[in-house]
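If I may wish for something, please sit down with the protein I am sending here and say whether tokens and residues agree:
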Amino acid sequence: MFDEEFLNKLPSNPYEAAQVMCDRFIDVNNTIPSVQEAENYKMYIEAFAAMEAFINVTGLPFTVPEIKIEDSKENNIKLIISLFFAVKEGSSGKLRELTLDKAREKYTTLFGTTFIYQFSDGDLTRIQQLINELRDAITKSELFDAKHKQRILTKLEGLQSELHKKMSSLDKFWGLIGDAGVVLGKFGQDAKPLVDRIREIAQIVWRTQARAEELPSGTTLPLLTDGKQDGN
């Protein structure tokens, strides 16, 4: 049901990927008469294991039922089917919520009812490039376990999908800066290539925010200073 080729083609957004997995499961399940479900027990267990692993790796907020070997096949199959329907409903709701949030931000920005931060075309292109480089570097990195790696990749994917020339909030960028501090503290110089890219994103974001809030030209980002003073 979930072969390697299918899993490799899943969307990068975890909620969209969960929906695709649920749709595949439900389509297959609908072809199996109830009286033949127990005969396909191994298939149900394989599907359950795949969804359980996916939820654990991505950190999606869904509760996975406990499957007990001593319980009847019929009872376990019911739990598995219920899990896939619950994940499908939950993922659909979350995607609708995200779509609404993006639409609200878009029109709030257009109508100018909130503070607006505007990137230059060059800065916007450079941020996109840096995020792509970060995603490639993290994917290939051996510093992170699978769960940590997926969490950071999901954050980058969300940030990139919401990146626009005009934005009403830069909070998600500053959240990324916090991650850089954690990574640097945990892995030291081994993480420097990743941290350097995040540092450059921070500098671009700071320039944009400083310009929007009319700070004096050349004001530096305190977070990026090393604490050394000239002459010391």
Summary: The chain has two domains: 4-95, 115-224. The helical segments are 4-8, 14-30, 41-58, 73-111, 121-140, 146-161, 171-187, 192-212. Residues 4-95 form one domain. The longest strand covers residues 117-118.
